[in-house]
Amino acid sequence: MSRRVRAIVSGRVQGVSYRASTASEARRLGVVGWVRNLPDGTVELEVEGDDDRVAALIAWCEHGPPSARVDRVATEERVVVGGESRFVVR
User: Fold this and answer.
1) What is the full DSSP assignment across 21-71?
2) Has residue 1 got a pLDDT over 90?
3) Which residue, of 58, 59, 64, 85, has the fewest CB within 10 Å?
4) Max alpha carbon distance in the chain (Å)?
5) Among residues 37, 53, 72, 78, which one is catalytic?
């Protein structure tokens, strides 16, 4: 079953390769969507795919790359979009 999740990641997550690392992990897991920096210093992402793969990416986001310090990952379910072919950095 497919699902889509939006997540806002806070902590030291900008300037530490968080977006690139998230995209790499998403591609490894075979999910689609996007990730971007927000002006307030957080990182936002939307991920879509099989439930277990989406859950795996969200779990990865809770620690991120080695140089990051994640304080919080706030998630909310979204409507499945479909039609995306890859995971991109915006």
Assistant:
1) HHHHHHHHHT-EEEEEE-TTS-EEEEEEEEHHHHHHHHHHHTT-STT-EEE
2) no
3) 85
4) 34
5) 37
Where are the chain's structural domains? 2-82
Place of tokens 């998630």: 75
Give the C-alpha separation, 66 to 86, whole Å: 24
Specify the fold of 2-82.
Alpha-Beta Plaits (3.30.70)
- 16: which DSSP letter? S
With a threshold of 0.85, does the pTM exceed it? yes
Of 19, 28, 69, 86, the catalytic one is 19
| Residue 19 annotated among the catalytic residues of the structure | yes
**Model pLDDT for residues 40-87, shown as the tens digit of each residue:** 999 999 999 999 999 999 999 999 999 999 999 999 999 999 899 999
pLDDT tens readout for residues 8-51: 999 999 999 999 999 999 999 999 999 999 999 999 999 999 99
